[in-house]
Design brief:
Elements lengths: L1 H6 L11 E4 L11 E11 L2 E9 L5 E7 L3 E3 L8
């Protein structure tokens, strides 16, 4: 863990909160987001993406890469405020 903290810049998303809200689409940002848990971060050149685990209404666990623009820290509201 200490080794990871030394490699990741202070401003990287990898040092941020793990519980998040995921926007369903970058195009349709007004759709209701769903909760997720970040498992891992990766950096692709200029962009960050997170491996996010979510649970569907039927109880199915989904783990997928999500671009950081669709991710908001989990707070008391779904809009990230």
């Amino acid at each position: 863990m200490a080794d990871r903290a030394r490699r990741e810049p202070e401003h990287s998303p990898a040092r941020r909160v793990r519980h998040v809200w995921i926007r369903p689409s970058a195009t349709y940002g007004d759709l209701t987001p769903w909760p997720g848990v970040i498992v891992q971060w990766k950096h692709n050149g200029a962009e960050w993406a997170a491996l996010v685990a979510t649970v569907a209404f039927d109880g199915t666990l989904t783990v997928q890469w999500v671009e950081s623009a669709r991710i908001r820290p989990a707070t008391s509201s779904t809009d990230g405020t």
